[in-house]
Design brief:
331 residues, alpha/beta, D-Maltodextrin-Binding Protein, domain 2, six-stranded mixed sheet, five-stranded mixed sheet, globular
Amino acid sequence: MLRPRNLAIGSRVTAASLLAGLVITCSATAQSFPDKALHIIVPFPTGGLVDSTARAVGQQMSETIGQPVIVENRPGASTFIGMQACAKAPPDGYTMCITTPDSLSYNQFLFNRLPYDPENDFAPITNLVVTNNLIVAHSSAPFNTFKEMIAYARANPGKVDFGTWGVGSIPHVYLEAIKSAFNVDITAVPYKGAGQAFPAIIAGEVQVSYGGLGFSIPHIKSGKLKALATTPDPSSLLPDTPTMKQEGVEPGLPSYFGIYAPAHTPMAVQERLATEFAKALKQPKIQEFLKAQTLLGIGNSPNEFAAYVKADRANAQRAFQAMGLKPMDAP
C-alpha cells in the first residue's frame, strides 16, 4: 500500500524537478541572450518611416548588445507576407517584426481571412514610437485647405486622387473615414508602402496623401506640398494647420510602430528585448533621429504594450463599424 504513495511522491518530485529545471533554463537563456545576430522583419518596402526607424534603432541596439541587428524588408499583400514570416519564425527572440496598427489591429476587420492570427501568433514586445501625421496635397492641387478639398471632391466626383500604402493601410483607413464623414467620392491610388507613396505625391502623381510630419515638413517649406490637416494632434511646427478632428473627421486610430516576436517567446527574453529597445531610444543619436522625424519614443514593457494593443484592436473594430467598412477578400 506504500508503493502508490511513494509513486505519487516521486511524481511530485519529478514535476518539481522539471519545473525547477525549466526556470533555470529560462534564466540561463535570458542571461546569455543574445549570442548571435538579431533579425527585424519590416513588412513594408525600404524607404518609408517604419523602415528607417527600424534601421536607426537596430544600429543603435547592435552597438549596445554587441551583436548585429539585421533589418529584412518583406513587403506585400497588406503586410501579410512579412507578418506571416514573423509568426512562423522560431520563438527564441532572434527574429522579430516591426509594424504599424495595420497588421494586428486593422487587418482582421478589413479582410475575410488572414494567413496569421493577430491575437495569438505574436508576443507584443514594446511600443517603439508613436507618430503625428498629416494630410498633404501637391502644390498643383486645385485646393489649399481641407475644406476646399472636400468642396472640390463634391463638385468633381472621383477626380481627387489619394495615395495610400495599399488596401487596409493607415492612409486607406483615413481616406475611408473622410469619404464616410463627408459623403464624397475620392479615388484611392495604392502604392506598396510609404517609401513609394510619398515620392509619388512630391512628383505630382497624386493630388493628396498621408504621411509623417518629419517627411512632409521640408517639402511644405519648399513649396512642393500643402498641409491640409494634422492627425491626431496639433503641431507646433504647423500652427496654422487644423487637426482632422477640427475639420470634422477623426477615426481616433493612433499611429505607432510596435515590435513583436513570435508567440511563445520566453517572457524573460521578451523583457530583455524590451529593455534593450528602451535603452536604444534614450541614446543621443536616436533622440536626434526621433526629433527630426517628429516621433515620440515610448519603449514600454511587454505587458504594458500587450494591454495597449488589445485596447487599440477593440477601438479599431468600433471605428470600422461606425464607418461601415465591410471585410473584403484577402489580397
